[in-house]
Amino acid sequence: MNTKSMMVKTVLTFSLISGAALPSAFALPSVTFTDGPGNTGGGEFNAVTSANGNFITFCLEYNEHISFGPKFYYNVSDTARYGGNNTLDPLSRGAAWLYLHLTAGDLAGYDHSAAQADLFQKAIWYLEDESAGENNSYVTAAANANGGLDEAKKDNNGLYGVGVMNLWANPDGTGASQDQLIRVPEGGTIVAIFGLVITGLGLVHRRFRQA
Predict the structure, then answer these.
(1) Which residue range(s) make up the domain with 151?
(2) Model pTM?
(3) 185-to-78, 91, 100, 106 alpha-carbon distances in Å
(4) Which of these, 1, 5, 184, 196, is most buried using a 10 Å CB contact count?
(5) Domain for residue 204, yes or no?
(6) Distance CA 162, CA 151 (A)
(7) How far is CA 187 from CA 36, 162, 184, in A?
(8) Cβ(149)–Cβ(45) under 8 Å?
(9) Sign of the C-alpha dihedral, residues 109, 114, 118, 124?
(10) 136: which strand partners?
(11) What is the pLDDT at residue 19?
(12) Whole-number Å distance between alpha carbons of 137 and 48
């Protein structure tokens, strides 16, 4: 079955903070995925979206899944939500930095091979404190660029123009699925597709991250 284990981070709109579904008046944009190089059960993944173009992405949490082919719906935030509940985990600075440079095409050593995709995915998992993570050369690069590993594990807060694509099985924002990385306008506030500002809406509990 075309399914891969992935990390999940989810939307921070006021409606979802309370655990409610998105208002039905707001139709979410859609995305489909195909597989890319890599053997970790994570990315590369190829995302084809209705609102943000096509791009390569990677998963943020290890213990969730997507399927290749079916349509998912999404909005964009700076925080993942595990399994659609209120366990919120902001994107780390190091993961955002790595994804920014990978998508810009200037990440040293990355060649879109399966071996490099595996190293990159494990670095993302490590920076997000996921069980399958690995402290490898990409983690070292992110740490060096951010003043050390502790700094690289801090919340990104929009610093690198990278956010979280929160995935849903249904267009009304129900049926949470694994969340993925996405580029957003650098230096801008991350805003949900339907126009609600979601950065800084608070009540976010970040899992303790240890070096």
Answers:
(1) 3-183
(2) 0.77
(3) 12, 16, 11, 18
(4) 184
(5) no
(6) 17
(7) 29, 10, 9
(8) no
(9) positive
(10) none
(11) 38
(12) 29
Look at residue 188 in the predicted model and tell me its pLDDT.
Answer: 46
Q: How far from chain centre, in Å, is Cα 43?
A: 11
Q: What is the longest distance spanned by two Cα atoms in the chain?
A: 45
CB-CB contact of 78 with 90 (8 Å): yes
CA nearest to 80, candidates 68, 94, 64: 64
Cα-Cα end-to-end distance for the chain: 36
Which pLDDT score is estimated for 61?
Answer: 82
Element (H, E) at 94: helix 93-104
Q: Is residue 203 part of a domain?
A: no
- Specify which residues 176 forms β-bridges with: 168
Number of domains in the chain: 1
Distance of CA 88 to the CA centre of its chain: 12
Closest CA to 136 of 117, 119, 154: 119
Q: Give a yes or no: residue 198 inside a domain.
A: no
Tell me if 192 sits within 8 A of 199, measured CB to CB. Answer: no
CA distance linking residue 70 with residue 75, whole number of Å = 17
List average pLDDT for each run of 10 residues in the chain, which is 211 residues long. Answer: 38 35 64 95 94 94 85 92 72 98 97 98 94 95 98 95 93 87 70 35 37 36
131 contacts 176 by C-beta, under 8 angstroms: no
Residue 77 within a domain: yes
